[in-house]
Amino acid sequence: MEAHGGYRGLGWSPERLVFHQNLESFAERVGLIVGLQGNGKISQEQAYAEIREIWKELRYSKDALLDTKDP
């Protein structure tokens, strides 16, 4: 389930590739959380808390991997 698409953006770098993979992972995890909430397995509050936490992880990843001056 960890298959990632190839990075095709401008300015390729190993850091951008890692962030791209983190972004894909975030999107997949959000989809799973939404599915769990939609099927009544977790509450809206739990889903929100989980998504908020993985958003923080993604934002930290961006700050750690990418120079904020990049376009």
Outline of the structure:
This protein is an all-alpha fold and 71 residues long. It has two helices and no strands.
Outline the secondary-structure elements.
Elements: H1 14-38, H2 44-65
Structure description:
This protein is mostly helical and 71 residues long. The protein has one domain (14-64). Helix content is 66%, strand content 0%. It is built from two helices and no strands. It has helices at 14-38, 44-65. Helix 1 (14-38) packs antiparallel against helix 2 (44-65). The longest helix has 25 residues, at 14-38. It is elongated, with a radius of gyration of 14 Å. 0% of the residues are buried.
Question: Main traits of this protein?
Answer:
2 helices; mainly alpha; elongated; 71 residues
